[in-house]
Amino acid sequence: MANPKPRPLDLKKLREKIDEKIKVVSMLGHLYIDGEYKGYVKDKEPLVVFVGVEEEDVNNLLDEIKQSIKSACEFYLRYVSDPLKLEKEYKHRLTEEEQDFLEYIKNEILLSEGLDSVNLMFEYNNWLFRLAFKDVLGGDKDG
Q: Which alpha helices (DSSP H) does 22-113 contain, by range?
């Protein structure tokens, strides 16, 4: 199987994969699992039951998580210190705000010299890291 192109971490996609494998039933009182009556829950707290979780499913989900983290790392390493490459290969997948920042920083780097250029590249690399891991870091990912 060919390795997919590196991409930023996407926790929403991972959550969807987890939801495909795990069914959560929360019930207070009479407990039904997949429509079948399983008894009465006496506790005052809702009971959460995970249905259909096999060890293989858990291992597959862990592999998916590892692959997603690896892909985000590869995404960062592929485009670190290279805004031109990011623009060429990935610009179409960026939001309008992200594209605007990329355009700004790219032009500023091209026009700058010495320490200014180094500082701008540092700013770009920080932005790129936040882009690659935005689902984990949260908050503002733009310049």
A: 55-79, 83-90, 96-111
